[in-house]
Write a structure and sequence with these properties.
The protein is mainly alpha-helical. The protein contains 21 helices and seven strands. Helix content is about 60%, strand content about 5%. It is elongated. The termini are far apart.
Amino acid sequence: MVRLFIFLVVVLALGWGFSWLADRPGLISITWQDHLIETSLMVAATAMVALVGAAMLLWWIVGVIWTSPYSVRRYFRARKRDRGYQALSTGLIAAGAGNALLARKMSLRTRGLISADQEPLIHLLEAQAALIEGKHDEARKKFEQMAEDPETRELGLRGLYMEARRLGANEAARQYAEKAVEHAPYLPWAAQATLESRSQSGRWDDAIRLLDQQRMANILEKPQAERWKAVLLTAKANDRLEGDPKGARDDAMAALKLAKDLVPAAIIAAKAWLREDNVRKAASTLEGVWKLGPHPEIARAYIRARSGDSTVDRLKRAEKLEAMRPNNIESLLAVAQAALDAQEFKKARAKAEAAARMEAREAVYLLLADIEEAETGDQGRVRHWMAQALRAPRDPAWVADGFVSEKWLPLSPVTGRLDAFEWKAPFDQLEGPVEEGSLAADTAIASLPPVTVSEVKPEPRAEEAPKPILVPVKPAAQEVKPPQKELAVAAKTPAPANVTPKDGKPPENEGEPVPFFGRPPDDPGVKDPDAGQPATRLRLF
């Protein structure tokens, strides 16, 4: 566009000049070697312009002829370079597609058409071809050459980092990432790897400083950066909780400001407040997180905040949590467990059954089994709830990369990824049974067997009661026949004393006579195993 404008300006200027000369006629006389040349001004100007144009054309022709060898060489060189770049592009595409044969063929062709000094991507193509062919040593050598070149340093360091990770050389991978961060702190992979390595070694301050640099460089978005910083501050607070409770409290509270629903930070902050005997602050911190999302660990920490509280006081605190988040399974389970500890079985059973109807899972049925064991002691009903727990879905837990942990961790022990743990049900859970659209909890509660009550027979009247028979039992050491007075006293014993208990231990009163009530009159009695004669029958009335 600019050139067109300049061309138009020049044409207009020439036209205006010739017009100006035409309006002002005149003669030009030139005397040269006894020759007089006279012409008009317009003809002279036209001849001058034509002469200049002819000179320029002649100069261009001479220049083309003079530079023709170089132009020919440049033409063939450009053609060769274009063919080389075409081969390089084809090779990189083949390497990305996993075609090792074509990638190696294009690599050789590219090296024959383009010099590696002119195009560093040839090293990348050769390294990728070596990786596809399984020649990892050759690939590492290529990456090392690329790492020495300032133009390809970042690419070479990334290749070396990936190879170190593949071999499990975590320390070497960390060093490559650290070196890459020194030269290019804006690289996401290097910053992420360095952040994870510093976190794994417990260098929380260095990790937080690097995270701030990434945030300032706009490598990470603000929500992600704040979340990771909260996780790092929580991990730092956890390490400082025993030695520096105040510092741990400050870090945990700072983490809660960045991530208000971070449960581990709230628990650590509450523990730090309790170390300072500030129960009100601890409770306020836990309540704030509980309102955002009920969590069983929050409930346990809140209910047992004061070690000297009675079970009734703990039940009241659990009911306070339920009032904050009603109709929530975690609230119901917390109240049910506190009621069980306080021996209020009716409330515990009602809350646990409500939780089962809301979400039938393993912990609910196990709690119902505990309630059954404490209230009725009926093993049939206990086994019923245990069977339901076996078929119920698993409870949520801290899960990261398939690893289930009993407590929260800042990093995944499998991959080392930051903020990997989530509170959710493990992947290998069993889904709860659903039949004909009804909830599994309703079916389980409806099929609960009745409480088994041991039958107690009423004492017969004197005229209708059969006469008891007392049978003396010899001690294990020697045979001693007890007198009738002792037998009469033993007959008043309410339960048999020589029945072996479940634990297998012999009763303390083994060998004493045991009354047998309710025998018919024609009972032959119990024979003495030593004498082979029927035992003596003694009648009290």
